[in-house]
Amino acid sequence: EIGVRLVGSEMCIRDSPSGFGTGIWTWSREDIMVSGANTLSELVALVPGVIELLGGDYGTPAAVSAFGVGGGGVRVTRDGFEVLPVEGGVPDLQRIGLAGIDQVKLERNGGELLIELTSHRHVDGRPFSVVEAGTGQLDTNMFRGMYADPTALGGSLALALERVDTRGFGRDEGGNRTGSWFRYQMHRGDRVGLSLEYRNMSSGTQVPEYASSLSRRDLTARVRAEVLDGLVAEAYTGSTRHEVNDTLSRYELEGGSRGQHGVRLAFYRNGLWACLLYTSPSPRDGLLSRMPSSA
Prior knowledge:
The protein is mainly β. It is built from two helices and 17 strands.
């Protein structure tokens, strides 16, 4: 079935079957758990043809490439909000967590590889929790857990934590990554909602070619309202901060922040839908882009 989702995280996503025929692959929360993937790059690398590019073990930079896509051709969005690169042409997948993620979607477009993440969605009025933990070779330990309550503090609350650490294969390849997620949503009936979200992911490594400690912080806010029957409007803003904690002089100029703002309009009636997005990737860029779609 093709349609626009007027509730949840995405307003402009169409449902399509998965596989090479459509160039789309999806993983639910259960699929992620069964896969054993600890990072986003490990998960999407399960698709034949997707190559995982690693700088070392956990804590070092990670990226993917596939289907002839070059640098800058990999984009990541989370709940419709783009995960902007902060230290290169593509986001560091080592610092994009899977805690609190309900679904991951990989889509092959012309000249682009798009990875869409969808955070936890409340399906009923009961609290929900899930915990994953494991240990293995090379002193590797992992933990990923989440708690969500749809009736907390006058709205809905979700918390998540993840960590993986290892001593690595070599003498100086020990590393770790630790992430946290917090989201609070306030609803006014069935027509208006406000969401505040914070994510933090830090990584550390003993590999001398990379900074010993990095962190990424994402803060987003959005408001969504059903203006008319079948017409939904959304406005959002957010910022991303990148920090390098290393005493070496070559990292003195590293770090900084980026922001983005946007407005969405989505309309659905009688099997037809249309979506219009205006977005500015960064206030300093001074750019405004428009991306319409319909069916």
